[in-house]
Amino acid sequence: MSDYSPTSSAYKTPATSPSQTFFNTDNNLRFAPHVTGSATTENVVMVDTRTVQQWQLDMALARVEGTTNQLEARLFKATFELDREVTRLHYEMNTYLRLRKEDLKKAQRRHNQTLLLCVLFVLLGMLMSCVFQHHGASKLLDRFDFG
Length: 147
Prior knowledge:
Blueprint: H1 9-12, E1 29-32, E2 39-41, E3 44-48, H2 49-135, H3 137-142
C-alpha cells in the first residue's frame, strides 16, 4: 500500500486479495495494517480490517435474518392456507359421508320392504293354496256373485 496513488491504474481496478475486496471507486475503502487505527487520507478512509469484517458479518446476518423472517411469514401463510383447505375438505368429506350413509339407509329400507313384500306374497300364496285345497276352487268361486 505504500505505492498507492489515486492516479495509478491499480486505483481503478479492485484488488484480488480477500482483505482488499471491498475497495472500489464507489466506496473508497482501503485496509490498514492491524496496528493502525482508522485514518483519513485524501478521500480514502483507512479502516482496520476487523471492523470491516464485522460489518460484513453484520450485513450478512441482517440479510439472513430478513430472509428467515420472510420465509417464516411465507411458511405461516402457507400453513394457514393448507389448514384452511384441509378443514374445508374435511367438512366436504363429512357432508359426502353423511349423504352416503343416508343413501345406504334408504337402499336398506327399500331392500327390507321388497323382502317383506316377497314374504307376504309367499305367505298369501301358501294361504290361498291351503284354502283351495280344503274348500275346493268351485265352492269358493260360487260364493262370489260376479253377475
